């Protein structure tokens, strides 16, 4: 579709809107009917063109400017007169009727603070790095009286825990199998048992000269050893 034909279609759709009210026929000569699907599209086109021409300098002088269809959000410094900005917007085009609702942000703290548990050596280094970017670190003990005394939830049995790193040690040598699983640990240990019994060559638990040792280990330590969360 050519640009000329598209402009003609828009002209016919916007300048020939007719309606009947109290026995009289009326034709809308400007704007579009309320609720028309063309309304948000034409608003974006119309205001977008004005933003790039008449209001370019005014917008560039603002601290922040953002628009969604016909709703505008902007920030100014404390020396800017909001009424002057509104008058500049309204003078950009006869059809523009802009009103403003000003809000003062009461921000007095220039430094941000973060609360972190204290870890020896690591906390000191983190505090020095954060100070360079204007962030303060407030340390607090990881273990508190409340955390020691109160148990909001019961502890899960290791076999019922999921998304953990687990270890299966050998009883007869210093070899350890370490793995991770996103499922319940009990299900993963059961799979290890089955792999050892069947002599699965792809199982890392079966690797070794005497596979019977791993059978004993898996049988005697059915839960495995939970090292921590993933």
Please provide a written account of the structure:
The chain is α+β, with helices and mostly antiparallel strands and 230 residues long. The protein folds into three domains: 3-90, no CATH class; 112-149, no CATH class; 158-229, no CATH class. 35% of the residues lie in helices and 23% in strands. The chain contains eight helices and nine strands. The protein has helices spanning 3-15, 38-52, 56-60, 82-90, 122-131, 145-149, 185-198, 211-220; strands spanning 17-21, 24-28, 64-68, 71-75, 112-117, 135-140, 162-169, 176-184, 225-229. The chain has a three-stranded antiparallel sheet. The protein has a two-stranded antiparallel sheet with strand order 1-2. A two-stranded antiparallel ribbon has the order 3-4. Strand 3 (64-68) and strand 4 (71-75) form a beta hairpin. The protein is elongated and about 100 Å long. It starts with a helix and ends with a strand. The model is unreliable at 209-223 (pLDDT under 50).
Give helix and strand order, one letter per element, not per position: HEEHHEEHEHEHEEHHE
Mean pLDDT: 78
Spatial strand arrangement across the major sheet:
8-7-9
Measured by DSSP, the beta-strand proportion falls in: 15-25%
Classify the oligomer. single chain
SS-based class: alpha+beta
Q: Number of domains in the coordinates?
A: 3
Segments where pLDDT lies below 50 for 5+ residues? 209-223
Count of distinct strands: 9
What separation lies between the terminal Cα atoms? 57 Å
Organism: Dibothriocephalus latus (Fish tapeworm)
Protein name: Reverse transcriptase domain-containing protein
